[in-house]
From TrEMBL, chain A:
GO terms under biological process: nuclear mRNA surveillance; poly(A)-dependent snoRNA 3'-end processing; rRNA catabolic process; rRNA processing; U4 snRNA 3'-end processing
Source domain of life: Eukaryota
A cellular component annotation (GO) from this entry: cytoplasmic exosome (RNase complex)
Record keywords: Exosome, Nucleus, rRNA processing
Family annotation (InterPro entries): ExoRNase_PH_dom1, PNPase/RNase_PH_dom_sf, Ribosomal_Su5_D2-typ_SF, RNase_PH
Start and end residues of each Exoribonuclease phosphorolytic domain: 25-146
Protein name, per record: Exosome non-catalytic core subunit rrp46
Molecular functions per Gene Ontology: RNA binding
Family: Belongs to the RNase PH family.
Coiled coil stretches, renumbered: none
UniProtKB/TrEMBL annotation, chain B:
Cell compartment(s), UniProt: Cytoplasm; Nucleus, Nucleolus
Protein name: Exosome complex component RRP45
InterPro entries assigned to the protein according to its UniProt record, in alphabetical order: ExoRNase_PH_dom1, ExoRNase_PH_dom2, ExoRNase_PH_dom2_sf, Exosome_comp_Rrp42_subfam, PNPase/RNase_PH_dom_sf, Ribosomal_Su5_D2-typ_SF, Rrp45
Species: Orbilia brochopaga
Superkingdom: Eukaryota
Length: 265, 298
């Protein structure tokens, strides 16, 4: 399987990237929480709900003398939380801590609770990270927690260039010859199962990279390089550029639009 | 960890004095439920119940397991409830509160032990393979009556859930995909619904005041509570009254009769909501449902 990704994604990848479906966002669905948000990913139909309480009293063992403690609890839709949820909450905790101005509320707790409501595949982490992160950022904004900046996260999957269904999709766009590899934004389960690699990236409004979760999905499809990686550096860089562009332009636009619609800020 | 804010004396006096004049803070009748809203998800067995500001979500899942050796003909059914900080920061993760235990025990008694779900219908191969049904209850927002809301959520979700069709040939079982064969509803024998009464001592005429569907504020001020679980046939599945103010037998009978009345209304509301959702899913065609019932021979 040969991927030859052009390093100028802006020109070649644009047609597939046209018209980003806007996520379904409900602000403050929970009246009791300080800030809450329900987020439905437009393509994968992953629905998550997050609530933020804070700054509140902190347990003595978690208290930090100069900073607020950020706690993230992820609860699965089915069953009890396990290793997967702990991993998710660690990823979220690290990413969000870098955004929150924790020094503004020392010796307190900022508690972020996330509930996965619906997901096509609740065992697949990469489908969940980006909805959870975007949803948590809205909740933090609504709770009035001081943030350094806002951020946005996207999930990109690379489909093999000989993928039939992608080719069908592409027929609808005018320009089909340029694509040698196909990047799908916020893929659903079916697309992800055909993908050779999947990448969740988060960028702040200023374009600073906050999160990289790149996964090789080539099991079953057959990895293409000797070391079993589903991507090479050029490809990854083009994905990173694409993600940065999406987060800093479309993501920021979505945040601005959603908040303006609600006349909150 | 943070506690629920305590009700101030002024607030307490206001609510109790108003009650003596048959008035509630939210303007409801003493024995009126808040509007129940049922929202179904894309998947079967996903129900979001909203009762005023209270919001409870139930999700049903099924997997094939080995039955218990002492009950080889019966499938498994578990209800999992956990109050997390999403409902209120006063609820801690991994440290169940008293309310947590009360809810899980009463739900267990109301639904599981009243045999609302026919456990024998979940058997696939005797002593080898049975369905294990799991109901996850998520409490999203707490404004009183969590128990009533979660009972409605579990029952509605069970009635909404569809089990994949299984064919057995000798030792082998095949679980058919949802696309391949139309999944069948669970066999539910009756719909028990919990109704919680909150008692507030005596009014001026010496009659015990009791409320239905109390808000979090009313729950914090009540002198006692009692949960009656009734199905639409008027059969009482359980009564739970742990502590609190003493209640006369006559009041208790009145409560039971009122509960049976309320349950009929809720039962009808659930049935209507389920039918509406079914119509939405099947674009107005309900004929397939008649063939897909679990009670029929397959």
């Amino acid at each position: 399987m040969n991927f030859s990704v052009t390093t100028s994604p802006t020109s070649s990848l644009q047609p597939t990237m046209a018209a980003l479906p806007v996520p379904d966002i409900e602000l403050s669905p929970l009246p009791q929480a300080d800030g809450s948000c329900q987020y439905t990913c437009p393509t994968s139909r992953t629905t998550v709900l997050t609530a933020v309480n804070g700054p509140i009293e902190v347990r003595a063992k978690d208290e930090q003398p100069n900073n607020a403690t950020v706690e993230v609890i992820v609860k699965p839709g089915i069953g009890v939380g396990g290793v997967r949820e702990t991993r998710l909450s660690t990823i979220l905790q690290q990413t969000l801590t870098s955004l929150i101005l924790t020094a503004h509320h020392p010796r307190t707790l900022i508690q972020i609770t996330a509930q996965i409501l619906q997901s096509e595949d609740h065992t697949n982490l990469s489908l969940l990270i980006s909805p959870l992160l975007n949803c948590a950022i809205f909740s933090l904004l609504l709770a009035g927690v001081p943030l350094r900046t806002t951020a946005w996260s996207v999930h990109l999957a690379v489909l093999p260039s000989d993928d039939e269904q992608t080719r069908d999709d592409e027929m609808q766009t005018d320009d089909t010859s340029v694509h040698s590899a196909n990047i799908v934004r916020n893929p659903n389960k079916a697309q992800l199962s055909r993908a050779s690699s999947s990448h969740v990236l988060a960028f702040s409004k200023e374009g600073e990279m906050l999160l990289i979760e790149s996964l090789d999905c080539s099991e079953g499809v057959g990895g293409r390089s000797a070391d079993g990686q589903g991507w090479d550096l050029d490809e990854w860089l083009s994905i990173s550029d694409e993600a940065q562009k999406l987060c800093c332009q479309d993501g920021v636009a979505v945040i601005r639009e959603v908040l303006a619609r609600q006349k909150i800020f | 960890m943070p506690k629920e804010p305590e009700t101030s004396l002024a607030e307490k006096t206001f609510v109790l004095e108003a009650l003596k004049q048959n008035l509630r803070v939210d303007g409801r009748e003493l024995h009126a439920f808040r509007d129940v809203q049922l929202i179904f998800g894309d998947d079967y067995g996903f129900v979001d119940v909203r009762l005023g500001k209270t919001r409870v979500l139930a999700r049903i899942s099924a997997e094939v397991t080995k039955p218990r050796s002492d009950r080889p003909f019966e499938g498994l059914f578990t209800i999992s409830t956990e109050l997390g900080p999403m409902a209120s920061p006063a609820f801690e993760v991994g440290r169940p509160s008293e309310l947590d235990h009360t809810i899980s025990r009463i739900l267990e008694r109301s639904i599981r032990r009243s045999h609302a779900l026919d456990a024998e219908s979940l058997c696939i191969v005797t002593a080898q393979r049975v369905w294990s049904i799991r109901a996850d209850v998520h409490f999203l927002s707490h404004d009183g009556s969590l128990l009533d809301a979660s009972c409605i959520a579990v029952i509605t979700a069970l009635a909404h859930f569809r089990l994949p069709v299984v064919t057995v040939s000798g030792e082998d079982i095949t679980i058919h995909d949802v696309e391949e064969r139309v999944p069948v509803p669970l066999s539910i024998l009756h719909w028990p619904i919990c109704v919680t009464f909150s008692f507030f001592g005596d009014d001026e005429n010496g009659e015990t005041m009791y409320l239905l569907d109390a808000t979090a504020q009313e729950e914090a001020l009540r002198a006692g509570d009692m949960t009656i679980t009734v199905n639409k046939n008027g059969e009482i599945c359980q009564i739970a009254k742990s502590g609190g103010v003493a209640v006369e037998a006559e009041i208790l009978m009145r409560c039971a009769r009122l509960a049976a009345e309320k349950v009929k209304v809720i039962d009808k509301m659930i049935g209507d909501a389920l039918r509406e959702d079914e119509l939405r899913r099947n674009k107005g065609n309900l004929d397939w449902l008649k063939e897909g019932r679990a009670e029929n021979d397959r």
